[in-house]
Design goal:
By secondary structure, the chain is mostly helical. The chain contains 6 helices and no strands.
Length: 116
């Protein structure tokens, strides 16, 4: 997976007009929101609440788009569709994929903090 798929630094930096403080602030907000929404997603899956799966996936898809986290955004796009279709088959695979991609993203965010 390329670094740009994890987090497209140049695209995100361009979006915030090269404001490093805003860049870091938005990453911090993303991580906080992600952890809260990820817990909501877990509960929605456990209770087979397709509507909540769809809404949380949509929210996180948008958040990932805002910070240019492209590979994670792709998983949420698929998960949103599964929620719309009330399709819980293989949904655990999506949650595992989300956790793996988020862990990779968190490492990349740490590296960026060191670089800035």
């Amino acid at each position: 997976m390329s670094e740009n798929a994890v987090l497209d630094f140049d695209e995100f930096m361009n979006r915030v007009q090269n404001d490093k403080e805003l860049f870091i602030e938005l990453l911090d907000i993303f991580v906080q929101d992600f952890q809260i929404k990820r817990a909501e997603l877990e509960e929605a899956v456990k209770s087979s609440n397709a509507e909540t799966v769809e809404h949380v996936a949509h929210f996180l898809k948008g958040s990932c788009g805002n910070i240019s986290a492209k590979s994670l955004r792709g998983v949420f796009t698929e998960l949103e569709e599964k929620g719309k279709a009330n399709d819980f088959e293989d949904i655990k695979k999506y949650l595992d994929d989300i956790d793996q991609k988020f862990a990779t993203l968190a490492i990349r965010i740490g590296e960026i903090r060191q670089e800035l």
